[in-house]
Amino acid sequence: MTLSELLQTTYSLPVASLEKVLALATHVELPRGTLLFRDDQLAHHIYVLERGLARAYARRDDREVTFWFSGEGAVLVSIRGYMERAVSYETIELLEDSGLFQFNAQALQQLYQTDVHLANWGG
User: Fold this and answer.
1) Exposure of 40 by Cβ count < 10 A (0-12 exposed, 13-18 middle, 19+ buried)?
2) Residue 78: pLDDT above 90?
3) What are phi and psi of 36, to 5 degrees?
4) pTM of the predicted model, to two decimals?
5) 85-122 tens-digit pLDDT
6) Contacts of 83 (CB under 8 A, 6+ apart)
């Protein structure tokens, strides 16, 4: 599935708006075990999982509590970091070697302020 198709699975964007988002995407290949988000750091990116598998977990006492798994097409984001610009409560780890599209969260937020279609899509 192309990035364009992945981005429009839940909300269809006009071509001009879609092109703005696509211009911000960087394709990255990351190995199994990569921590995209950590529960002790502020998140600066958002990812769309092109290929691979990821899980989100929280540390409780001396154990990890997994609360979701995601595969192809998933948007991987620290909600707290994205919405509140606060340190995340979850860690998101890649469980397989993965292909992802990476977006700078601040650049996306700026786009939302200039395009109502993107504001509805991402906000």
Assistant:
1) exposed
2) no
3) -75, -40
4) 0.89
5) 778 888 999 999 999 999 998 999 899 999 999 988 88
6) none
Say which DSSP state 38 is in: -
Q: Half-sphere exposure of residue 39, counting CA atoms within 13 Å on the CB side? A: 11
Give the tokens for residue 88.
């995340």
- What's the rounded Cα separation, in Å, for the pair 91 and 104? 18
Q: Terminus-to-terminus CA distance in the chain, angstroms?
A: 23
The residue type found at 30 is L
Would strands 26-30 and 35-37 be described as parallel, antiparallel, or unpaired?
unpaired
For the chain, the residue count is 123
Evaluate whether 22 touches 55 at the Cβ level (below 8 Å).
no
Whether the CB-CB separation of 79 and 18 falls below 8 Å is answered with no
Locate 66 and state its tokens: 């997994």
Residue 120: both structure tokens together: 């509805």
**Which helix or strand (DSSP H or E) is residue 102 part of?**
strand 98-104
pLDDT at 57: 94
The beta strand positions in 5-44, using DSSP E, are 26-30, 35-37
